[in-house]
Inverse folding.
């Protein structure tokens, strides 16, 4: 018996909306399942299977990406739109996204992550990421990206890829990696590309493989000016000036770089005659040509010609001035250095190297006023960035001028310190009688891990000598050999001789000199002779003076010290013998003088306008000193006349 279903009146009626959904689902079930591939090639593709349209730069999302201000929040929003729309896999969109990330120094790793999500990255994207790391002075990461990502994903290189990689090898100085990249150049057929060849020539030259560089140069007869210049520059930097000159003469055309490279090569060899001849043949010169010639004459300390060239320059830059300032510091003409600096201020803004030379001159002349002005200039000028060298020059100036509080303030504010910085502070405390602080500074240096050098121990021993710390001096003299494996030099022995001599331990000083492994110079014996004078030890003084005269018969210092020792003990006959010896050998004592810088009391305008009383004080003191000197001379003449009359 069949059973029929009859809906009761209580059954829920299907609404029109539910019925519509039900019918739609039935239609979907009735549709044929989608095909993974077409059975017939001529059948039209479904709408979803059609390729994406070609992307153009005028696309709104790319224009938004180009105008991105660098904010990561803004970039992430655009990145999300590229992902959702599927445009990120387009090479143009991916390249623009990576380029935007690489424009920020902190987004390199995010660019690498974006690269890893790309299905088919191209060489432009890889080159952009590698160039980003190279510009951040991180060539090793750039090289690692090439092997771990570009090679791993089999991304084909272009003619921009290998010059970039060769530059990386040049910067890290790895000839092995450079040769590996050269092999890949040959594999991919880029060996005749001029850009690639020029990069390889430079790389081999930097790594000292000048023969390999020449082999790359000779691969093809087609070369541009950069190729010739790279080869000439390689020869110059490897010291083969003759080969460089031969290639220079063969060049079909030359530019300023060609001429300057050759001049630089001759200057490096010390052949200023050849450099000057080439300089005079130049059809046109730039600032580099002039600076190179001036620097060449500075290196051989030909001040006259260097000044003549400097004055003939049509225009000068800060490098020109710095060369001359460094020259005067090197020959210890500190007054001329400061005079040159005054001239410079009216023409060119100084930089860090300028101020190092000026502060060095101020330190030697005791120009505390100008040194303090330089410090103020550094603080108020945002262009000047005080590095370790400049800060060390500043604190050394303060230390030598006796302003140890200011020197310590500069030292404490330095983010990084060199061993020279520590040495300057130790030296400053020692020369101003603060040996305890000098030794505390040395202990602090050890605690902070800075490694002392031989100059450090010269400063420490000198501090002990100035304060008579004999026990401490012996301790640090032994420490430098026992702990730091530094063999004492003449300077260290000189400090110890001075220390022992000041303490009256002349015998120990003499014994130390005789046990030295090297020949004791005049400075050591002179220090011992000075100690003999201090402690009136004429017997040892005679022995030391004779040794000094043997070492340097023309040095008048030994005669004068010995004469003064005899005079202090009333041995006038011996004084006369020493003087007759000096006269017989034509030795005369130069007139002594003291230099007083009036501007030290204030600025130049302050001295000229408002400090008349200070000038009066200074001239009064100098007049009194002159009167006392004259009286002393008269007394000496009277004693000498009396001695002659008695005899």
């Amino acid at each position: 018996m069949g059973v029929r279903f009859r809906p009761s009146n209580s059954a829920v009626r299907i609404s029109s909306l539910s019925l519509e959904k039900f019918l739609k689902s039935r239609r979907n079930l009735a549709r044929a399942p989608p095909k993974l591939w077409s059975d017939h090639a001529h059948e039209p593709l479904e709408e979803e299977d059609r390729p994406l349209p070609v992307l153009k730069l005028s696309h709104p999302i790319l224009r938004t990406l180009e105008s991105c201000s660098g904010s990561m929040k803004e970039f992430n929003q655009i990145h999300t739109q590229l992902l959702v729309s599927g445009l990120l896999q387009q090479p143009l969109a991916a390249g623009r996204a990576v380029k935007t990330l690489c424009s920020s120094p902190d987004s390199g790793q995010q660019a690498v992550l974006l690269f890893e999500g790309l299905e088919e990255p191209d060489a432009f994207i890889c080159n952009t990421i590698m160039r980003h790391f190279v510009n951040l002075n991180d060539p090793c990461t750039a090289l690692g990206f090439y092997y771990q990502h570009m090679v791993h994903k089999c991304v084909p290189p272009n003619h921009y890829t290998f010059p970039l990689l060769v530059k990386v090898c040049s910067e890290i100085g790895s000839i092995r990696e450079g040769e590996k990249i050269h092999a890949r150049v040959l594999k991919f057929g880029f060996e005749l590309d001029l850009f690639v060849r020029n990069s390889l020539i430079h790389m081999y030259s930097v790594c000292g493989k000048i023969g390999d560089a020449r082999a790359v140069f000779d691969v093809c007869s087609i070369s541009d000016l950069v190729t010739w210049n790279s080869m000439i520059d390689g020869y110059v930097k490897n010291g083969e000036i003759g080969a460089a000159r031969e290639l220079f003469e063969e060049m079909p055309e030359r530019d300023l770089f060609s001429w300057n490279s050759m001049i630089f090569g001759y200057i490096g060899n010390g052949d200023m005659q050849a450099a000057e001849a080439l300089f005079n043949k130049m059809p046109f010169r730039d600032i580099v040509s002039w600076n190179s010639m001036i620097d060449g004459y500075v290196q051989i300390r030909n001040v006259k010609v260097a000044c003549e060239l400097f004055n003939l320059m049509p225009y000068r830059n800060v490098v020109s001035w710095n060369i001359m300032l460094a020259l005067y510091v090197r020959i210890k003409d500190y007054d001329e250095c400061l005079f040159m600096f005054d001239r410079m201020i009216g023409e060119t803004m100084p930089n860090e190297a300028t101020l190092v030379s000026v502060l060095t001159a101020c330190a030697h002349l005791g120009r505390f006023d100008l040194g303090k002005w330089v410090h103020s200039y550094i603080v108020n000028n945002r262009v000047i960035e005080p590095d370790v060298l400049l800060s060390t020059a500043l604190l050394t100036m303060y230390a030598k001028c006796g302003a140890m509080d200011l020197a310590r303030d500069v030292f404490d504010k330095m983010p990084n310190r060199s061993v020279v910085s520590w040495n300057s502070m130790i030296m400053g405390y020692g020369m101003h009688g603060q040996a305890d602080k000098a030794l505390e500074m040395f202990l602090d240096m050890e605690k902070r891990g800075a490694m002392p050098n031989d100059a450090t121990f010269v400063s420490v021993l000198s501090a002990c000598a100035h304060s008579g710390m004999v026990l401490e001096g012996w301790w640090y003299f032994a420490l430098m050999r026992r702990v730091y494996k530094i063999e004492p030099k003449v300077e260290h022995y000189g400090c110890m001789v001075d220390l022992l001599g000041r303490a009256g331990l002349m015998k120990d000083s003499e014994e130390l000199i005789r046990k030295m492994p090297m020949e004791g110079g005049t400075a050591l014996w002179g220090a011992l002779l000075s100690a003999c004078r201090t402690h009136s030890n004429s017997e040892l003084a005679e022995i030391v003076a004779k040794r000094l005269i043997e070492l340097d018969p023309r040095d008048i210092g030994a005669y004068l010290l010995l004469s003064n020792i005899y005079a202090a003990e009333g041995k006038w006959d011996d004084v006369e013998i020493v003087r007759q010896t000096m006269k017989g050998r034509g030795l005369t004592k130069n007139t002594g003088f003291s230099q007083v810088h009036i501007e030290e009391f204030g600025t130049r305008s302050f001295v000229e306008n408002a400090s008349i009383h200070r000038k009066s004080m200074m001239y009064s003191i100098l007049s009194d000193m002159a009167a006392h000197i004259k009286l002393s001379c008269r007394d000496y003449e009277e004693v000498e006349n009396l001695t002659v009359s008695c005899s």
Notes: The longest helix spans residues 612-646. Residues 426 and 442 are 7 Å apart (CA to CA). The chain has 35 helices and no strands. Residues 1-15, 32-50, 600-614, 642-647 have pLDDT under 50 and may be disordered.
